[in-house]
Amino acid sequence: MVIKVYIASSSGSSAIKKQQQDVIGFLAANKIEFEECDIVVSEDNRKWMRENIPENSRPSTGNPLPPQIFNEEQYCGNYEAFFDAREDRAVYAFLGLTAPPGSKEAEALARREQQQ
After folding, report:
1. Helices H, strands E: what count in the chain?
2. Which residue, of 18, 67, 76, 79, has the fewest CB within 10 Å?
3. Do 8 and 39 form a contact (C-beta atoms < 8 A)?
4. Which CATH number is 97's domain given?
5. Of 35, 32, 34, 36, nearest to 103 (Cα)?
6. What's the domain count of the chain?
7. DSSP secondary structure string, 74-108?
8. What angle do CA 35, 19, 13 make, to 5 degrees?
C-alpha cells in the first residue's frame, strides 16, 4: 500500500507549504513509503483528490486544500487529522498501516490491549 499525499507545489500560502513539509518530512523520517501527487501540475490529480474526499470531510465553502492524505484509494484525512493522529501517537492507524514492532505507537497499542 502506498500513501498518497496530495500537495500544491506552488502554493501562495505559507501555512499550506509548512503543512505539506510537515507531513512529507514525517513520512520520510519514519521510512513510510509515499507518493506526492501534485494538484498544480496535474488536473487529473486535482480532480481525483476533490472527487474522492468524503462529503463529511469537505469544507463547508470552497474546495478542499492540500495536503490531503490517502492510502491508495482510501481517504485518511487532511493536515489537521494527521496532526491530531501524530499527537495521539496513532499515525500508523490513521494511515491504515500496521505500526512497526518496537515503535511507540505499537507499544501504546499493546498497553491498551493489555488493559482491556
Report:
1. 5, 4
2. 18
3. yes
4. 3.40.30.10
5. 32
6. 1
7. EEEEEHHHHHHHHHTT-HHHHHT-PPPTTSHHHHH
8. 110
Partners of 74 in beta bridges: 71
pLDDT category at 35 given cuts 50, 70, 90 is: very high
**67 prior amide bond cis, ω within 30:** yes
Cα distances (Å, whole numbers) of residue 66 to 5, 104, 113: 8, 28, 35
Q: Which residues contact 102 (CB under 8 A, 6 or more apart)?
A: none
Radius of gyration (Cα) for the chain, nearest Å? Answer: 15
Q: What type of residue is 9?
A: S
The parent domain of residue 46 ranges over 3-115
Q: Which amino acid is at 40?
A: V
Under DSSP, is residue 52 helix (H, G, I), strand (E, B) or coil?
helix
- pTM higher than 0.85: yes
Give me the chain's average pLDDT, please.
94
